Amino acid sequence: MLNKLLLFSILLFPLTASGQMKHQVGVSYYGASITRPGFGLINEFSHDLDKGHSLSLRTTLGFSHHRRLSNTYFILLEGVYRYKFNSGFFLNALAGGGYQYARLIGDVYEYDNGAFEKAKNPSRGYFMPSAGLGFGKKWSADKESPFTWFLNARANAKYPFNNLWLWFPSVETGLMYEF
Fold first, then answer.
1. pTM of this prediction?
2. Residues 6+ apart with CB under 8 A from 130
């Protein structure tokens, strides 16, 4: 999956170089289930449809930590629709999916054949769908400032979690820099 995402980013590079797309990179605080601290590294290619609307493709490499449960690593590929106001404020709608790997903390035991045994590899990988809404502001709308602040509220899931979809809220806030 990582190879496909890298290939897709490489294929978008000629469009960025030709000036048809804008390229942004950023960092964010990523709070899984709101309170589990983490961070994200963001790479985004966007195309302005007109003065007030744009579409973007965003890739996020991230990490979050749950003190008693796990360290989680993820890669998330999302489509972003952005409505921009003249004042520099904007609204986001995000949807996508990715891969999440949860590395469990501490010893994990499994019950098998009437006895408890220490699990050999308790860490797991999950499919991670995501959808969210957000808002933000370009630092200055009248000048061409390269910095943008944003805040996104999301609904994420991991599947399969005991053969179920485990949905959880998350929040992401950060800064983007436009090249």
1. 0.80
2. 76, 78, 94, 95, 96, 97, 98, 154, 155, 156, 157
